[in-house]
Design a protein that fits this description.
By secondary structure, the chain is α/β, with parallel strands linked by helices. The protein has five helices and twelve strands. The protein starts with a strand and ends with a helix. The protein binds cytidine-5'-monophosphate. The site of cytidine-5'-monophosphate has 15 residues, from α3 and β9.
Length: 220
């Protein structure tokens, strides 16, 4: 299959030296890309700024902002069978980006922000029904109910709900503990394990789901 994976944070610049971002390191997305490649899939990675190097033989496009990730995902989506939106895309960006470093005396104590484009909401409008869309929900509380809401609202086939309040899971850790929820409401809890193991289970679900889609299509 052709699989597009997004990973890492985005950076929303205020000026050339200051930006809004988050704690994502890209480890989970890179693990998914790596496992998918090892299973023989054709993988494309779109990565925000991270310090890990791209896995060998994966085409990796580096972006900085949510808008750049949005534009590249929408451009590549028509050619894909699967999109895994693992990136921690910033939800807000400064209204204005200064070309020069702002002097602290010239800065206000409040920062005017504007919402970034929601990539999955845009994907929902142009996707084909047989494409498989997987999203993530990084939460610190009421994890499952927020995740279910995102799954419906953003039209995903599967959401990976991630408790990022734990130090041994989520941002920066090599391990993760997640719950997979699919659009039928089926739930699969994955206790603490390496991000590579979690990646394998997400891809197991994707591959099984793809088989079902093809079986249904050949019955018609
Ligand atoms: O930020 P949030 O928790 O709503 O993210 C849920 C899912 O939506 C993730 O898969 C994330 O990659 C995606 N997302 C997006 N565009 C945004 C923010 C998040 O596609 N602007």
């Amino acid at each position: 299959m052709k699989i597009l994976v997004t990973a890492g944070p985005t950076r929303e610049h205020l000026d050339p030296v200051r930006f809004l971002s988050n704690r994502s390191t890209g480890k989970m997305g890179y693990a998914i890309a790596d496992v998918a490649r090892l299973r023989g899939h054709d993988v494309q990675l779109i990565s925000g700024p991270v310090s890990i190097s791209s896995p060998a033989s994966i085409v990796c496009s580096r972006i900085t902002t949510a808008q750049e990730m949005h534009d590249l995902v929408l451009e590549q989506l028509p050619d894909m069978d699967v999109l895994v939106m693992c990136a921690a895309v910033a939800d807000w960006r400064p209204c204005e980006v200064s070309r020069h470093k702002l002097k602290k005396n010239a800065m206000q104590s409040t920062l005017p922000l504007v919402r970034t484009a929601d990539i999955l909401e845009a994907v929902q409008r142009i996707r084909r029904p047989e494409q498989i869309i997987v999203g993530f929900a990084a939460e610190t509380h009421d994890i499952l109910s927020y995740a279910r809401d995102k799954l419906d609202r953003k039209g995903m086939d599967l959401i990976v709900a991630n408790d990022v309040s734990r130090s041994d899971a989520g941002f920066g850790a090599d391990s993760n503990a997640v719950t997979l929820i699919d659009k039928t409401g089926a739930i699969c809890e994955l206790p603490l394990q390496s991000k590579h193991e979690v990646a394998k289970k997400i891809l197991d679900w994707v591959e099984l789901h793809a088989q079902k889609i093809h079986a249904n299509a050949s019955l018609r």
